[in-house]
Amino acid sequence: MYPNLAGQKGLYLLKQLKAFKHKERTNPIMLSQAKGLSDQDMKDLASYFNSLR
Ligand code: HEM
């Protein structure tokens, strides 16, 4: 039910976080996660999850 993000491509993660924030991808849980994030926050998160195995 909840996707495992470890090792996912950074560009993909960044795109999904932006999509949740801008309601282009609709999910109430992820909207509440993404709405307070800056562009830099989203880049940092994408880079972090990309760095995990
Ligand atoms: C309580 C914490 C969280 C819960 C319960 C949760 C739940 C979910 C759910 C249910 C989805 C699938 C949404 C859909 O397509 O309908 C999802 C996707 C996603 N979540 Fe979260 N999430 C949480 C926290 C986070 C955090 C902190 C991040 C920060 C990176 C994050 C990043 C993502 C991303 C990038 C996706 C898209 C994954 C994909 O397309 O494969 N989530 N999350």
Overview of this protein structure:
This protein has helices at residues 10-21, 28-34, 39-51. It has 53 residues and is mainly α. It has one domain (14-51). It is globular and about 30 Å long. The structure holds protoporphyrin IX containing FE. The site of protoporphyrin IX containing FE has 12 residues, from helix 1, helix 2 and helix 3.
How is the topology of this model organized?
Layout: H1 10-21, H2 28-34, H3 39-51
Helix pairs in contact: 1-2, 1-3
The structure holds protoporphyrin IX containing FE.
Count of helical segments?
3
Distance between the termini: 20 Å
Give the total of beta strands.
Answer: 0
Attached small molecules: protoporphyrin IX containing FE
- H/E element sequence: HHH
Low-confidence stretches: none
Tell me the helix content. 55-70%
In short:
The protein is mainly α. The protein has helices spanning 10-21, 28-34, 39-51.
